[in-house]
Known about the structure:
Elements: H1 2-9, H2 17-32, H3 38-41, H4 44-56, H5 62-78, E1 82-87, E2 90-93, E3 105-106, E4 113-123, E5 129-138, H6 148-157, H7 166-181, E6 186-191, H8 198-202, E7 206-207, E8 210-217, H9 231-236, E9 242-248, E10 269-282, E11 297-305, E12 317-322, H10 329-340, H11 343-355, H12 366-392, H13 404-415, H14 426-436, H15 449-469
Helix pairs in contact: 1-2, 2-4, 5-12, 11-12, 11-15, 12-14, 13-14, 13-15, 14-15
Amino acid sequence: MSVSLRDEVRGAVLGDQRLTKRLVKVIESLGAKPNMSVPAATCGRAEMEAAYRFFDNDKVSPERILRPHIEATRERVSQTDVALLVQDTTDLDLTRPKQQVRGAGPLEYHTRLGAFFHPMVAFTEHGLPLGIVWQKSWTRSKIKKMTVNDKGRWIRETPIEGKETYRWIEGLRAAREVADTCPQTTCVCIADSDADVYELFCEPRGTSRGEVHLLVRACKKRITVDTEMTWFEAARATKCLYQCSVNVGARIAKLSTDKRKRHETREARLAELEVRATTVTVRHPYRPGRHRNLSDITLNVVLAEEPNPPNGATPIQWLLATTLPIDEVQQVRRIVAYYAIRWQIEIFFRTLKSGCRIEERQLETVERMLNCLAVYAIIAWKVMYLSRLGSECPDLSCELIFEPSEWKSVCMTVRKADPPSTPPPLNEMIRMIASLGGYVLRQSTRPGPQTLWFGLQRVYDLSTAWQTFGPG
Length: 472
């Protein structure tokens, strides 16, 4: 694992070759023990202080740390037929009981401080994470207190460039750059309902060598030009193309005061959906100012809806606005499957927060936290990549990823026998590592990122012991 992490940052340009070498050491140390603190993950006081000095260096920035990883990700994207570029936002809660992180801004309210992280992660159509292709992070200076009328006026009159929602357009432009550098790959920019912004649909998607497609879950009640119905009603008026079953994950509301349906608590269940699709032309919203003229746009919409939800449960309803074709049922199925991959970025955030414990890092300024975040973002991607790679390429030799001291020590620990003469397949190795982190070996299931990040920490210790006391 460490070799691959080293390759993801080896080309970082930080203005000093010593800083690049330090970045390699830092990401190897933290990547070997992603769930542990910086002092516990580094070897001794000198390395710990060097890591903290690295995060505090003025020449270091998240963009410079991530640049070689982004270039490597684009190379991986160019080798696939379809790349799903999923963008989403998460908040980093940096609230401390005593001394607060300098530079942290308010999140939902002034007593909860932190920063926002908005990455775009590339996936294959089967859900294999390829890496980060773009990211943006920011803090708020304050929260505007406005009445309902004032808020509505501010939303209508403020240019999109002055709103936080502008990040979705920036993300689409970044996706357009990826599509331009990878002309043989079909790139699809995917986002959830927060990205239902009219200006996003109006944004140019073409490049000199192709275009990027758009797939966004809709939430606004936009009116169609021809029928005067909402696009929800227009899609619901069409015939059902097919029915499908989806597993709905359990969810616990973060805030008891948050009454939005998409954030409410729900139990896990198997939902039966009806899927419909149509093409609509949506009326443009009013924007004041002579430079705010918008035109009507034509989009394809796919409605996946649960007609008979359990008593008391909010029905599952996806209205997907897209530029992908819907001429055939198979194309509609593909659109629903593509959007289902969007959930993988939530797993990425969970790996970053619960696995790498980024919010618990004891750094005094938000600038140091964001530098640390960039390093752990690569580590979180790597954990997810290993978790999925075992099932995507099960027969691949594990020695392409793991050192002999790693796979031999794991085999001996798990199997209670001498290691084999040849390296085991990658899928078998991933399952053994996850078993060290609490995964119960079963043929019907596959390990997830949580058991894998716990297991990887034990791999590091076993490998160290093997090199120190083992054969040879």
